Amino acid sequence: MYRNVLMMISLVIVLFAASCGGGGFTVGDPGGGGTPADNTAPEVVISGISEGSAYGEQQPGVNFLNVKGVAADTGGVANMAMRINGTLVAASNDSELSFGWDVTGYDDGAYEVAVQASDASGNVAEEVVNVIVDNDLIFIPPGSFWPELDLDFGIEDPIPDPDPGPWVPDLDIIFPGL
To answer: Rounded to two decimals, what is the model's pTM?
Structure first.
């Protein structure tokens, strides 16, 4: 008799635990149908710029950039934001946004372009691309030929060396494409 009571109590506990739902389902009908919880963040892609690339006013066609962010999520994208070094430059309640970035209005230096997207469940994803703005960058168009080029430069040793001998045994200057 005692054994039957323990078996019955164990069975009731197991059935109660199984009927309570859980397992990543939201509260639904009493039959346990529920809707699966969305725990997946949107996927974000940035286009129009490349990681580590330099942009500036001396480069025809690459001083005004159309930076675009696109996000995808199975439940839909609720909103997006684009920031340059933390400053909001564009926002959208859609799955894409764009920003016309005139780099000539920015100081030379490193910039972080971040696009963040969130879905209706509050899941957030971010994509970051680091670029360099260099408005003093000299641009030589492909196919250009310079028959004579004088380069003046100096090299200094930042660490004094008691041996004054040559410390740069070889120096190669390479001009890709020339």
So the answer is: 0.59
Could you report the per-residue pLDDT of 114-123, keeping only the tens digit for each?
A: 999 999 899 9
Q: Cα(113)–Cα(20) distance, rounded to whole angstroms? A: 45
Tens of pLDDT, residues 139-159: 666 666 656 666 666 666 566
Residue 138 CA to residue 56 CA, distance in Å, equals 9
* Per-residue H/E/C for the chain: CHHHHHHHHHHHHHHHHHHCCCCCECCCCCCCCCCECCCCCCEEEEECCCCCCEECCCCCCCCEEEEEEEEECCCCEEEEEEEECCEEEEEECCCEEEEEEEHHHCCCEEEEEEEEEEECCCCEEEEEEEEEECCCCCCCCCCCCCCCCCCCCCCCCCCCCCCCCCCCCCCCCCCCCC
Q: Which fold has domain 43-133?
A: Immunoglobulin-like (2.60.40)
